[in-house]
């Protein structure tokens, strides 16, 4: 191995270690703080507690109303993920296969949504006009809209690599466009669908801003909003907050670990085929 390759390899390992530390250090801080007493937790450092308070997890589970946040979060995340997969995959297929001025404009318009800033005030007013401000439908629609631009992009690139001969063969057999898509094309999109599911679910599950501004009822809060249950007069009980965050991370970690191999493979395959 040449010296240049060795230097590049060492540089790759160094960058990988830095990225690993960026992610693992905050998690370790949260994990250590979650087993401290309330007084010790106010100084958030890596010092081990004098006594491990594992009961913080039980307390946060009971007082944080985790079951309510869990069911609300799963309902919103699963619904948005399902709608994103179906709508974006079919829309990307139509835009890629039936190119026209209208589909070209629509594609560019949707991609502009990746850089356009989101404004809460018009969104809140629109939801009030549509009578969607006091239920999950408004939150789901806003979350769905935020996921569409990037998701359309990755599906569009992937569909580009699927031969058009498959469409022609299905048309010869008398298959309609919707049936043809779901029976012929959609199964071929499984790598990018898996990527879409993991990324969308984790994004919606961890969403804080939309829930904070668009959900007026505490009974509709998802998991990230549960930290407000530990708010005191002028501060938080950070031990319980960190215990709650640790519990809230478990579903995301499970989804990510189950689908992590599809994230890179799906995105790189789509990029190469695009």
From TrEMBL:
Keyword Cell membrane in annotation: yes
Pfam families: BPD_transp_1 (PF00528)
Keywords, alphabetical: Cell membrane, Membrane, Transmembrane, Transmembrane helix, Transport
Topology with respect to the bilayer: Multi-pass membrane protein
Location relative to the cell: Cell membrane
Signal peptide residue numbers: none
Source superkingdom: Bacteria
Family matches, as SUPFAM superfamilies: MetI-like
Domain ABC transmembrane type-1: residue ranges: 70-259
Location, primary (coarse class): membrane
Family: Belongs to the binding-protein-dependent transport system permease family.
Protein name per Swiss-Prot or TrEMBL: Melibiose/raffinose/stachyose import permease protein MelC
UniProt lineage: Bacteria, Bacillati, Bacillota, Bacilli, Bacillales
């Amino acid at each position: 191995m040449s010296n240049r390759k060795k230097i590049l390899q060492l540089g790759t390992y160094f960058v990988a270690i830095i990225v690993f530390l960026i992610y693992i250090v905050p998690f370790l801080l949260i994990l250590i703080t979650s087993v401290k007493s309330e007084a010790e937790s106010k100084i958030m450092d890596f010092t081990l507690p004098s006594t491990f308070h594992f009961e913080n997890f039980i307390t946060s589970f009971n007082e944080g109303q985790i079951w309510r946040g869990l069911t609300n979060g799963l309902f919103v995340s699963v619904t948005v993920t399902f709608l994103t997969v179906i709508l974006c995959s079919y829309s990307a297929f139509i835009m890629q296969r039936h190119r026209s001025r209208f589909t070209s404009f629509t594609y560019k318009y949707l991609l502009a949504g990746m850089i356009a800033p989101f404004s809460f005030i018009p969104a809140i007013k629109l939801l009030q006009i549509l009578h969607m401000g006091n239920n999950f439908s408004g939150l789901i629609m806003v979350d769905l809209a935020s996921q569409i631009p990037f998701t359309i992009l990755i599906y569009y690139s992937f569909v580009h690599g699927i031969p058009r001969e498959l469409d022609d063969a299905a048309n010869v057999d008398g298959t309609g466009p919707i049936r043809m898509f779901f029976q012929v094309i959609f199964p071929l999109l499984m790598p990018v669908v898996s990527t879409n599911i993991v990324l969308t679910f984790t994004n919606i599950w961890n969403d804080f801003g939309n829930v904070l501004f668009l959900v007026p009822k505490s009974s509709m809060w998802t998991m990230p909003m549960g930290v407000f249950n530990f708010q005191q007069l002028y501060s938080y009980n950070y031990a319980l907050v960190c215990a709650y965050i640790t519990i809230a991370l478990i579903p995301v970690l499970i989804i990510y670990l189950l689908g992590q191999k599809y994230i890179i493979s799906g995105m790189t395959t789509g990029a190469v085929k695009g």
